[in-house]
Amino acid sequence: MTSPEAGLFELPDRYLELQAEARALASSVAGIAAEADESDSVHPEVRARLAASGLAAVTVPAEFGGRFARVDSLAVTVVREVLAGVSAHLDSVFAMQGIGSYPIVAGGSDVVRKRWLPAVAGCEAIAALALTEPEVGSDLKAITTSISEQDGDLIVTGHKSFITNAGDADLYTVLCREGDQYSLILVPADTQGITVTRPHQIIAPHVLGDVAFDGVRVPADHRVGEPGEGFRLTLATLATFRVSVAGAALGVAQAALDEALRHTTGRTQFGVPLARLGPVPSLLALSWTEIEMARSLTYRAAAAAARDPQASLHLSSMAKVGATEVTGRVVDRAVQVMGRFGLVRGSLIERLYREARPMRIYEGSTEVILDSLARQLVKRHGTSQQGSQA
What we know:
The protein contains eleven helices and ten strands.
């Protein structure tokens, strides 16, 4: 894998050290990456090697066994860029430890934090975040899964769908309706009343399923945050981890470009290497240019998110859109310049092609994010106009 340039700035030593650790982990998984990336359950060897590396500790605060005093968006992004370039499955297992547990970091009770976060840091527990439902995707205010109180306990009833790690998770952080409000609750996976099914699989196989909660009862201290704080804590999670999707996308794009270079420099047509023939040089150079542009924005956004996640969510959103859209184009060009060899089933480029496509949809589709950014842009313009007229 080509080493990424630092973009607009040189990464501090602690991030370069993380990159080196991530490369060592990715290298250890490379031999089983194809097998793991086709799995619909957490691959036990991938999990074991992630646990042994200690890198999952990047996803929780130091107080609970983590690597940094607080979860560092740039650290998560740097690690995901390396891991995703080798194995989407490894990247997903790593990332979901943070995404599934961060609401607990931000709003969980002391009892819950002490019980679960060290286990997440050591990969002894697999985390999941349950937001979407069979009829609810981006419009989370339409959810019907509910919380009620009974004899001092909290009762969860409803159906969550397309949940990453469903069936393999040890804990679910669940977004629910609570009267006219929205709240989060932690539900251990072994609680009575939980049923997991796997009715769907996507083009890039993923640990994915539906989770039904049939009057599931948990203690009151399993509430995450105060009643009505569900969206605030969900937004805090997105603000911290969304930019890392851009990092993962860069890893996929870089891997695709490397594979295209391997093929086009090693194959000769009409007496010259493909990399010097017709439009191929321009396609390769354009891919390189777009990757570096996306990397610069991604690192800038991730560094800003490490300082103040919510204040820089617009940058994280731009990076997520920019990097995932670039990755789609880069992987498509790689297939094109490889010709018929880019179409071979079971090849690396086919796997990367399939991995790239869902990135433009999950954790905020391109269109939904652009709509939100446009509203912010118009609002900022109006505020600036009012200020100039004052």
